[in-house]
Amino acid sequence: MMTRHFLSLLDLTPGELRAIIARASELKAINRSGTLHETLKNRILAMVFEKSSTRTRMSFEAGMAQLGGHAIYLSPRDTQIGRGEPIEDTARVLSRMADAIMIRTFEHSKIERFAAYSEVPVINALTDMYHPCQLLADIQTWIELRGDISGKTVAWIGDGNNMCHSYINAARQFGFNLHIAAPAGYTPDAQLMKEADHCATLFDSPVEAAGDVDLVVTDVWASMGQEEEQARRAKAFADFQVNASVMSATKPDALFMHCLPAHRGEEVSEDVIDGPQSVVWDEAENRLHAQKALLEFLITPETGRSA
Ligand code: CP
Ligand code: NVA
What residues of the chain score a pLDDT lower than 50? Predict the structure, then answer.
């Protein structure tokens, strides 16, 4: 059987994505009941982190432990990756020892090259282009709180970055409409927008984009690797904060999401992220459950793909 990878949301079918999310909610209930559930006993996940992480590392590591397996953290600081060993060689070696490999890196082409040489599933834990694991958690959160997301309207306010790109793919895969408000020069990838022109639309202002929507999402103005652009970006994004005036344009029961880490007073005001419409803590917790379902699906298709 061909090795399945999860480099973007487009690697799985809409049905597979929905099954993983349904399984994630089941695993959440099993976890809450305190029942041991070791479907990945003795399985190994290799985790390559070339950027910082709190949620992603914690959720993959805790998830593997809860499923009876083990996760091994590898950083460029103390592996040969940081000393220039070719990514193709690293892929071949790690995949002889691990049952799946998770990578957080910079260029998306690097994870694609890695996957081409890996004999086991490769999971994108964030590249400069996409963050698909976060979307599994976000959609799970929406479904658990509000039901089906198809036909709903989501507003993305801020940078046309890796999270925005994953929202564009999610709109295609889950059948919702996406309104995007981003400053000139920071709009999402044009090709991706073209492929999603039936469901993703650019707006000039955050208030316009948020008009009558069901969900508002944002992310930091400067992503990892863009730290030196912080001051320039802060100026460009000054009118793109999600605050009470943006939220007042939405449907009254709209939710607010943010993948975190957040900068209060920049991309989101304190009253919104800490207010009643914000579901950011559920969203963060669901990283754990959604990725456990993803790991089952990729490592043991017989259990993970039965849903
Ligand atoms: N949302 C997210 O991926 O967080 P970390 O960078 O902490 O992993
Ligand atoms: N866009 C952010 C997401 C962090 C989870 C970044 O890439 O740094």
Answer: 306-307
